Amino acid sequence: MNSAYRDWAIACVAPVTPARDRREVHSLHPIPLHRLTDPDVPRRRTTDDGRPLLQLPLRRGMVVHPPTGALLWRFREVALLGRPTRGRPGPVRLHPHMSRSPVL
Question: For residue 23, what is the DSSP state?
């Protein structure tokens, strides 16, 4: 892992005490940054109609889908692993219950 990216991510996340605006955020779920780099994150599945679906299993009983999952996937790739995401296939599908594609 590139230490410049790791230090930036920790400096931005560690000193902050999350607070939510109940009108906009349903719940907060603290996840250690290292969990985003575990080998089982992300995982790709196929929907019933054959489309690819990105999933981020972040803890027991919690799987995040795009668009939030897409944002976390890009953060993982760029900030934590130092990998470019431009020009690479990325997470382009929303959870099957959502109707539109995210703009990435």
Answer: T
Backbone dihedral angles phi then psi of residue 28, each to the nearest 5 degrees: -110, 140
65: pLDDT strictly greater than 80: yes
Render pLDDT for 71-85 as a digit per residue (tens, 0 to 9): 899 889 888 888 887
What is the reported pTM?
A: 0.63
What are the residues whose beta carbons fall under 8 Å from the beta carbon of 76, sequence distance 6 or more? 36, 37, 41, 42
| Alpha carbons 78 and 74: distance in angstroms, whole number | 6
Average pLDDT over residues 32-59: 90
Q: What is the signed CA dihedral for 84, 86, 87, 90, rounded to 10 degrees?
A: 90
50: phi > 0 → left, psi -120 to 50 → alpha, else beta; which?
left
Q: Which candidate, 23, 22, 45, 31, places its Cα nearest to that of 95? A: 45
